[in-house]
Design goal:
mainly alpha; about 350 residues; transmembrane helix; MetI-like_sf; membrane; 15 helices; cell membrane
């Protein structure tokens, strides 16, 4: 106890010195933001230099194989490709600091505009998918832990195994054949039927929200018919991961002494599990959900390709295929920002709800 007392900062008069709140806030901000900037800078550098070493010539991708040498050299100078790599990277970093990611070689438009155009489609798809995955995955994981070893547990684990093992592109193709081509219950590939495409006035970029705001319910049903199958397939994969992790967290909690104490006091099994045990794993479950959402935002490439979904993953894939490094680096930085932001959010939750981590 004496060591603890003497370790507290004191003034010459013996009074306890209270730390300056501004200094404390700056230290916390520095410890938090510095790793973020280092991570994003390293991600930009790694992606940029790897892209320059790929056997893909962006100039040839723009002009084609039949371009003359004069046209090739002129385009190369216009893109700055004749400069050293370190100079090209310096120019690119300077542009990034002013939120200028350059022109996309595939579209001829600023990368920022392209991302702003395609990202809402992916956000809408991933959000509906995570709602499905979370709404079914958390209860499934809790129930599996409650009845560990029973046929219910085995059925939930088997379903999760299918969600892990079955490729999304195969599930997408089979779903289109069954629900679209055979029964006609859903819309086909794409985000909306062509006949309704010009009936939506873009407000937020999210078709489901825009159609509701404008009261166009027939268009809303068409949009929902297109999104429900790819969202369900992505949500099925998220469900598998969320249910498995929730089950693992709950099994650990259900083996604690306070659970036995609660049961001895007469609490029902359901109340003990949902009120006491689940409350202690809620932050961990939120972390799993947040990371699953991040993976959905950047990892829905195959699903977007199968369903011709005009989203972020498809845009990034097309940019990679033609060596459009401005678009690739811009997309990579966005993915990095998403993961870093969600990790910071999860760390904040831990600090708020678990005093041991403060």
């Amino acid at each position: 106890m004496a060591d603890i007392v003497h370790s507290v900062p004191r003034s010459d008069a013996g009074d306890v010195v209270k730390p300056n709140p501004l200094v404390v806030a700056l230290k916390i901000a520095g410890r938090t933001l510095l790793p973020v900037f280092v991570t994003l800078f390293g991600l930009a550098a790694l992606t940029f230099f790897i892209g320059r070493m790929l056997p893909i010539d962006p100039v040839a991708s723009i002009l084609g194989d039949n371009a003359t040498q004069e046209a090739y050299e002129k385009m190369s100078r216009a893109l700055g490709m004749d400069k050293p790599l370190w100079y090209q990277f310096g120019v690119y970093v300077k542009g990034i600091l002013s939120l200028d990611f350059g022109q996309a070689l595939t579209t001829g438009k600023p990368v920022v505009e392209d991302i702003a155009r395609v990202f809402p489609a992916t956000i809408e798809l991933a959000t509906l998918a995570i709602i499905i995955g979370t709404g079914l995955g958390i209860p499934a994981g809790v129930v599996a832990a409650m009845y560990r070893g029973s046929w219910i547990d085995q059925a939930i684990r088997f379903t999760g195994l299918i969600g892990y093992s079955a490729p999304n592109f195969w599930l997408g193709l089979m779903g289109l054949v069954l629900f679209y081509a055979t029964f006609g219950w859903i819309g086909g590939p794409g985000r909306i039927d062509f006949i309704y495409e010009f009936d939506i006035e873009p407000i937020t970029g999210f078709y489901l929200i825009d159609t509701v705001v404008q009261g166009k319910w027939e268009v809303f049903r068409n949009v929902f018919g297109h999104i429900i199958l790819p969202a369900s397939i992505l949500g099925f994969g998220a469900l598998a991961y969320i249910s498995r992790m929730t089950r693992s967290f709950m099994i650990e909690q259900l083996g604690q002494e306070y659970i036995v104490t609660a049961r001895v006091k007469g609490l029902s099994w359901g109340r003990t599990v949902w009120v006491h045990a689940f409350r202690n794993v809620a932050v961990q479950v939120v972390t799993v959900v947040a990371l699953s959402y991040a993976f959905l935002l950047e990892g829905a490439v195959l699903t977007e390709t199968v369903f011709a979904w005009p989203g972020f993953g498809r845009y990034l894939t097309n940019a990679l295929l033609v060596g459009d490094m401005n678009a690739v680096v811009g997309c990579s930085l966005l993915v990095g920002i998403i993961f870093v932001s969600l990790n910071l959010f999860c760390d904040l939750l831990y600090r708020v709800f678990d005093p041991r981590t403060r």
